[in-house]
């Protein structure tokens, strides 16, 4: 009975929302200058959408740029900063959806509204994406297929998409395997979020120093692995010889700050939270989740070493041309469940490690200035990134006038 009532309420909310959108569109008509921006299921203010939104506000005054979200903390944050924002759950959000001509988003229709089926057909979408990693996702996944209901939502999303941004023609080919929206819709512009890697705003330096407080590390390590799509929790330091006291001693001795950035989907696991709590006993270890540091690219320029596995973040980090280490501990399972868009090990831009001893040796090399992966990084960088400048926002913003 409870599930039936929930289903009925959902249908009623959808019907009311569609009525508001349809009536608003009919009575008030479209607002050509109104462009919406959203990201990460409407829960956070960040990623490509944030960087483009702020650039448009600063450089295209003729555009009425508005952020749309259902998250109360984001609503308070943007209102306090004096930035235009509407609540996707409220009347203002529905009116904005009805009247806007374009919307930029990162993850999916739920960036814009909790009920994806109420997004109007009149709204043109430009997909900024959350990044293109080596792993197969969406329609390109091998063993672990997306559910049918999710597939239907993604197909509707694809029908509304006018353009998808990309970082190179090679990446566009890989991206189309996953999205299946039509290869002609992919446009090489670079990612807006990467502009701040190559032209760091002074405010980002100030925020980073505030985050550090009294800590003065000689090296900053970011451990940012990929999500396992809810199949099982991601393991940090999955080594048989793992010894946290050895790790703590090495970090302290070399004044290395270790930032751990789990995917937000991994924080639901009690075992993961317990593991992080254990490591956080060391003053040289900190969490760097979306709560502590919502925008990873805002602090990426201050990172000396990236530790990852299959995350799209290592493609961004290539632009900084700094050392990387990889921990593909579940490669065989990942190859079956997701699969890879290109040969993972052939193009790996750093050393793959499987023990704590190997990690310690590699970290010692980085601290002493060794960089054996430089040429591999640059080869992959030049395939991933056609543009290696800080003008991606400018290129993407041109679509407002041309789409």
Structure description:
The protein is an alpha/beta fold. The protein has 2 domains: 14-190 and 389-402, Rossmann fold, CATH 3.40.50.11820; 202-384, CDP-glycerol glycerophosphotransferase, C-terminal domain (Rossmann fold, 3-Layer(aba) Sandwich). The chain is built from 17 helices and 13 strands. A 7-stranded parallel sheet has the order 3-2-1-4-5-6-7, sandwiched between helices. Strands 10-9-8-11-12-13 form a 6-stranded parallel sheet. The longest helix is centred in the N-terminal third of the chain and has 27 residues, at 2-28.
The biggest beta sheet, please? 7 strands, parallel
Task: Give the proportion of residues in helices.
Answer: 40-55%
* Name of the CATH first level of the largest domain: Alpha Beta
Give the uncertain stretches in residue-range form. Answer: none
Order of strands, widest sheet: 3-2-1-4-5-6-7
Query: Alpha-carbon distance between the termini?
Result: 47 Å
Number of domains: 2
The CATH homologous superfamily name of the largest domain equals CDP-glycerol glycerophosphotransferase, N-terminal domain
C-alpha geometry: globular
Provide tags for this entry.
single chain, 41% helix, six-stranded parallel β-sheet, 403 residues, Rossmann fold, alpha/beta, globular, seven-stranded parallel β-sheet, 13 strands
Walk me through the topology:
Blueprint: H1 2-28, E1 34-37, H2 47-59, E2 64-69, H3 72-80, E3 85-87, H4 91-99, E4 102-105, E5 124-127, H5 148-160, E6 161-166, H6 169-179, E7 186-188, H7 195-198, H8 202-212, E8 219-223, H9 244-254, E9 256-260, H10 270-279, E10 285-287, H11 296-299, E11 305-308, H12 313-317, E12 324-326, H13 331-337, E13 351-352, H14 356-367, H15 374-384, H16 392-397, H17 399-402
Helix pairs in contact: 1-4
């Amino acid at each position: 009975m409870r599930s039936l009532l929930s289903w009925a309420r959902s249908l009623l909310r959808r019907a009311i929302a569609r009525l508001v959108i349809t009536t608003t569109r009919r009575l008030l008509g479209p607002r050509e200058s109104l462009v919406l921006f959203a990201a990460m299921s409407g829960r956070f203010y960040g990623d490509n959408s944030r960087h483009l939104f702020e650039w448009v506000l600063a450089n295209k005054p003729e555009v009425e740029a508005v952020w749309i979200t259902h998250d109360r903390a984001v609503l308070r944050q943007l209102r306090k900063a004096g930035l235009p924002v509407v609540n996707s759950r409220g009347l203002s959000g529905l009116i904005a959806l009805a009247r806007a001509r374009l919307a930029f988003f990162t993850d999916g229709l739920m960036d814009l509204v909790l009920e994806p089926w109420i997004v109007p057909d009149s709204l043109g979408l430009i997909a900024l994406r959350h990044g293109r990693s080596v792993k197969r996702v969406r329609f390109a996944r091998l063993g672990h297929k997306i559910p049918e209901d999710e597939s239907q939502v993604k197909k509707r999303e694809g029908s509304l998409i006018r353009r998808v941004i990309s970082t190179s023609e090679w990446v566009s080919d890989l991206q189309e395997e996953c999205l299946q929206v039509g290869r002609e819709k992919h446009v090489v512009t670079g990612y807006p979020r990467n502009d701040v890697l190559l032209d760091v705003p002074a405010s980002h330096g100030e925020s980073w120093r505030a985050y550090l407080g009294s800590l003065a590390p000689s090296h900053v390590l970011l451990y940012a692995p990929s999500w396992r799509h809810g199949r099982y929790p991601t393991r940090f330091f999955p080594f048989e010889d793992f010894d946290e006291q050895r790790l703590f001693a090495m970090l302290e001795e070399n004044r290395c700050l270790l930032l751990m950035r789990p995917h937000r989907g991994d924080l639901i696991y009690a075992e993961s939270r317990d593991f992080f709590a254990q490591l956080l006993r060391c003053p040289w270890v900190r969490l760097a989740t979306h709560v502590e540091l919502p925008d990873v690219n805002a602090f990426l320029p201050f990172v000396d070493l990236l530790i990852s596995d299959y995350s799209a973040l290592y493609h961004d980090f290539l632009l900084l041309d700094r050392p990387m280490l990889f921990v593909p501990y579940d490669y065989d399972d990942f190859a079956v469940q997701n699969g890879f868009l290109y040969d993972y090990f052939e193009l790996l831009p750093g050393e793959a490690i499987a023990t704590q001893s190997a990690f310690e040796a590699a970290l010692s090399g980085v601290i002493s200035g060794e960089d054996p992966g430089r040429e591999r990084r640059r080869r992959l960088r030049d395939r991933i990134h056609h543009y290696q400048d800080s003008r991606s926002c400018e290129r993407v913003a041109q679509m407002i006038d041309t789409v």
